[in-house]
Design brief:
The protein is mainly beta. It contains two helices and 24 strands. A six-stranded antiparallel β-sheet has the order 14-23-16-17-18-19, with no helix packed on it. Strand 17 and strand 18 form a beta hairpin. The C terminus is likely disordered. The protein binds calcium ion.
Amino acid sequence: MPKTVSILASFLLLVGVECVFAQTITIDDFDSQCELVGVWADNKTNGFSAGGTFKNGYHYTSVVDPFKKTGREQAIYTPNLPKAGNYRVEVTYRATSNRSKQVTYEVRFAGGRKRRTVDQSRGDGVATAKLGTFPFKAGTGGSVVLTGDGGGSASADAARFVFAGEAGDLPPDGLDDVLDGVGGGGGGGAGGNRLDSSNPGSLTYTFPADGMARIAAKLSTYGPARIEVILKTAAGEESELMSWSRQDDMDPSPLLFKGQPVEESMQEVKPGDFSPVKVSRSIEGKKGDQLILTLDGNFGDANPMLSVKGPAGDDANPGAPGTGTTTGSAGGGETSTGTASGDDPADASN
Ligand SMILES: [Ca+2]
């Protein structure tokens, strides 16, 4: 008997542990953890089809009275995460052809922020945008913020946070990702292979063997500033790989990589309003070749960065697991997978 009880107790303990921690936390637009800022309409008010959305409903910003949007609408999803770790973040919305092509989602995670622009006009019915996998602390410190633009309608349905492993087991950098505003706190500035506003200047990275190194750059600044990366071969030949100069936060000048402008390094958030975006590039080198990185200028409160990571197995920035190591989902953040569900023609008026 005692043995049976013991086994039963163990079983219940196991089941109990499993039940305590939900792998996926979903916040609906009608939940209290989703704060809607500005003027929002919902499908129920106007009798539109829910289009397969979570909990049978969604909100949207309308271009007509009486729910006409102000242009400053936001939906802020704040999960109460039971456990620290990496979470895959996805959002759903009701896609229709009259939606905005530029709905911004900003993921605020432990150590940084990442922004993605989603075209909500693609697809028809409920659609999902995968924003990537990010480290979060337990609790309510992280969030996803949807911001509509001044043009078309934006739609808000659910945000999902799917547990994807312990923090520290971050997947390797897989994409040229779009990372916004990694704060000094997450910078791990002690690493010798990262420059930022608290640690500007120059550093030299030497290839320990033939292989690839990965350089990430983002030139956020409020005053004149520059980034420069030079490859110096073991034979002493120098070539400029990256250069980026901006006069201030209004300067739209893009990063030059091997002399060519990298358009994606500056994102036009709104017409005439540009924002720098983190860009990563892989560089091939031979043993003994050097990369000379320089970041300097008058940044003000901005958080520029320039870093280099060595080949696999030679993480050039040990001890700073949060440093820019965010990875977009393999499908890319801007993929929206619309499912063809019964469209509501009346929706076209919102
Ligand atoms: Ca919903």
